[in-house]
Amino acid sequence: MNTLKTFVLMGTLTFILLLIGNALGGHNGVVIALIMAGVMNFISYWYSDKIVLSMYGAQPVERGTHLYQIVEKLARSADLPMPKVYIINEAQPNAFATGRNPKNAAVAVTRGLMDLVDENELSGVIGHELGHVHNRDILISTVAATMAGAISFLASMARWAAIFGGGSRDDDDRGSNPLALIGIAIFAPMAAMLVQMAISRTREFKADRFGAKVSGNPVYLANALRKLDLYSRRIPMPNAAPATENMFIVSPLAGNKMANLFSTHPSTEERIKKLEDMRFE
């Protein structure tokens, strides 16, 4: 099912790319956008995990370290292949998982997370990320991040084209006018974000539930989420890309009030309540 969702997502975001291409260059723009979409879909499927890890300067964690051992223990309990483990030199406490499938998965945590939570809470967070691996949403979220980034880049091009007159084109080549370019520049990133939101919110609850079970106690993750929600608002992640927001356990843009209007995450309060209700099941 998630494989089908991934291809539907690719198709939807490809369609948005084609609309932008048409606005920028008419027929020629559509051809260029189609080629770009094909390349982006290929890269997204095979290399998007490496791109995202590189974006955040993630460094591999060596076997035998404390973090590696925690991930190894939880992966064994979850009956999952051992993922690669990375650490990101960011003060904001956060984490994400990425990869094509469970055999090619990676889990990344920030130094801020390691400094903030205790071992039980860290187990809850890692368990959540392994939930995304188990549920095979890591490919969907990573593809969405890569494609949404491409759409945002082209939308920015449309904005500048509108400012500078939209370029010259033959009369026979229907296409953009400044108003159309402005419309694309405004609504294309919003459309990409809405697609991300549609695939993100319910899967967070599923990953929370998995993390609670594999870590042994739903309170571990609930306590971690309280801390992450509070400190992610206080400590910014300057290089956090909006396109990758959906990948993190809590939004890295939580301190941005405008970003909260289009958050890819359900409210932390609701997530904590569902976790605490698990104690009575």
Summarize the structure in words.
With 281 residues, this protein is of the alpha+beta class. It has one domain (2-280). The chain is 65% helix and 6% strand. The protein has 9 helices and 4 strands. It has helices spanning 2-55, 66-77, 111-116, 119-134, 138-163, 178-215, 218-234, 257-260, 268-277; strands at residues 59-60, 84-88, 95-99, 105-110. The longest helix is centred in the first third of the chain and has 54 residues, at 2-55. The two termini are 28 Å apart. Residues 167-175 and 257-261 have low confidence and may be disordered.
Element layout with pairings:
Elements: H1 2-55, E1 59-60, H2 66-77, E2 84-88, E3 95-99, E4 105-110, H3 111-116, H4 119-134, H5 138-163, H6 178-215, H7 218-234, H8 257-260, H9 268-277
Parallel strand pairs: 2-4
Antiparallel strand pairs: 1-2, 3-4
Helix pairs in contact: 1-5, 1-6, 2-4, 4-6, 4-7, 5-6, 6-7, 7-9
Strand content: 5-15%
Q: What's the number of helices?
A: 9
User: What separation lies between the terminal Cα atoms?
Assistant: 28 Å
What strand line-up does the widest sheet have? 1-2-4-3
Low-confidence segments, given as residue ranges, are 167-175, 257-261
Summarize the biggest pleated sheet: 4 strands, mixed
